[in-house]
Amino acid sequence: MNKTISVVLPNYNGKNLLEEYLPFTFQSLVQSNALFEVIVVDDCSSDDSVAFLKKFYPEIKIIQNEKNRGFSFSCNRGIYESRYDLVLLLNSDIKLSRDYLEVLLPYFEDQSTFGVMGKMLDPSGKSIEIAAKIPRFNGFKLKTDKQAFPKDPSFGKVVTSFLSGGNCLLDRKKLVELKGFDEIYSPFYMEDLDLSIRAWKLGWKCYYEHQAVSFHLGSATTRTFFGKREIKEIYFRNRMFFHAIHLDRKDLKIWKFKLLFLEVLPKLLLGQFWILNSFTALQRKQYRIDHSRRKIRQLMMKYKGRKSIAQITSEINTFNAGKQLIRL
C-alpha cells in the first residue's frame, strides 16, 4: 500500500514547541516510507515561529493567516492546501513515536476507514490522556467522557466515537467531502466530535490503535489566552450547538425543553450567569445551525446514510463488544 501523507499543523506562538517536537514528526514520517509533505498554518503568531521554520525547515509549506482565526479555520486552510491521500492533523505540542504512522497506515486498506488515532500519553508516559472514546446516549444527550483501550490487541480493531484533532490520520477525500471542521465551533471544543459523528453518519469508521503512541507534552494555550469563565461559556455553547445540529428533528423540542429547565435555569439559580451567554448564542446562531443540519442531511442522502446518534452509539458499542476493553 503506497499511501501518501500531508501533515497539517496549526501553530500559534509555538516556536519552542516546533523546535522541540518537529524532529519526531519527521522521524515518524520517514519510517512510514510514505511520500509526505508538511504544512504549517500559522495563526498570526507574534513570536519567531515563521522565521524559525523558514531558516531550519525550508521544505515545510507555510501558510500565514492575516489575523488569528482559531483551530478549525487554520486546520481547514491546511486541509484544502494539502495534496496527498491522507491528512495527519497534528498539534504543535504532540510528540510522535517513531513508528506512529507506520502502525496507523494499514487501517486505510479498508475503504470504509475515515480515520484512526493512536493513544496519547501525558509527558511522563505513564498515564493515558486519550484512548478510545466510548459513547453513551440517553435519548437526548450524547456523552463521550468514558475512555477505554484493549487488553489484548489481537482481539481485533477498536472503534472510537471520535478522533482527536491533535493526533489523527484521516482519509483526505472523505475529509474534503465533509468540508473539514465546522467553523461554527470556533475557537475550540467539539469540532473533532462533530467531524467524526458526521463521518459515522455516512457509514465511515473511526478507529483507535493502542500500539501507536504519542505524547502530549506542551502548551496550555487555551488557558493562557482564555479565562475560566470564557472557557466554560464556549464549552457549553458548543455542546448546545452539537446537539442542535445532530439530534433527530423529533427529539429537538424535548431536548430544548430539558436544556432550558434542567441545565440553564438551575445554573442561573446557582448564580452561574455565564450560562446565559452560551444559551443566547444558541438562539443567535440558529441560521448557521440550520445550515449545518442541511449539509449533513444532503451528504446522508448522497451516501444513503440514515444513522442517528443513537444508532451510531449502538454500532460503536456492538463493534467493540468482546474486545476486553479496559476502562479508564
Automatic annotation (TrEMBL):
The keyword Transferase applies. Keywords: Transferase. PANTHER family: RHAMNOSYLTRANSFERASE WBBL (PTHR43179:SF7). This is GT2 family glycosyltransferase. The keyword Transferase applies. Residues 6-175 form the Glycosyltransferase 2-like domain. GO terms for molecular function: transferase activity. Pfam families: Glycos_transf_2.
